[in-house]
Write a structure and sequence with these properties.
The protein is mainly beta and 209 residues long. It is built from 4 helices and 10 strands.
Length: 209
């Protein structure tokens, strides 16, 4: 077990913790829990930071914007596969509950739903710059670690990156898709994930759902 680091702060966003696996034109997701973005103190340093928590912890506390929380956690061992600074959280405490009503969306900043809801809604690609400037506080935004298998005959050869996605209403005025995503394959082949993939993933939802 690694050295544990104490942290505490005010929540400035809660988003799903999801890992995306790509193998050329195939993809799958692992729904792991949630990521708390906080403004506070981590290891004695004052700054913004991210904490990974499990779905059970979120179900218990129903975290939301403005809550004050504390705990301890371990530094992430593989930063290619996590967006958070710390995970394996323990002594998690809700110190103060936000009582102010959330502002009108967008962004949506209430209590995020369970992970089954995210899976059922499906996502659309989200421009990275738009995510950084408009969507970091939104419960429908997600920055995912992406693990890519380049050659199915050599599964040990992998690459890593981060991609941003939106699970929110298709009518959101902040939304911008950005360029189509490309996935590398064997012998220099490249798969381009075009708009129809997002359309298919979210066609069961109306514009305002």
């Amino acid at each position: 077990m690694g050295a544990r680091i104490a942290w505490a702060g005010r929540i400035i966003s809660v988003q799903p913790r999801i890992v995306l696996m790509r193998s050329f034109d195939e993809r799958s997701h692992s729904y792991l829990g949630y990521v708390l973005r906080l403004d506070g103190t981590i290891g004695g340093e004052d700054r913004h930071f991210l904490i990974a928590i499990g779905k059970a912890a979120h179900a218990k506390h129903q975290f939301r914007l403005g809550d004050t929380v504390s705990g301890t956690g371990e530094p992430v061992v593989n930063p290619d596969m996590e967006t958070a600074d710390l995970y394996k959280v323990s002594t998690l405490r809700l110190l103060d509950r936000a009582i102010a009503p959330p502002p009108a969306p967008p962004p949506w900043v209430g209590v995020p739903p369970d992970l089954k809801t995210y899976r059922g809604r499906g996502h659309r690609r989200l421009n990275m710059r738009t995510y950084e400037t408009k969507c970091q506080a939104c419960l429908w935004g997600c920055r995912m670690p992406v693990e890519m298998v380049i050659d199915q005959w050599r599964p040990e050869v992998r690459r890593y990156r981060f991609e941003t996605f939106c699970y929110g209403p298709k009518s959101c005025p902040f939304y911008a898709a950005g360029a189509a995503r490309k996935a590398p394959g064997r012998k220099g082949m490249v798969y381009e994930e075009l708009d129809w993939v997002d359309e298919e993933a979210t066609r069961h939802r109306g514009d305002d759902e």
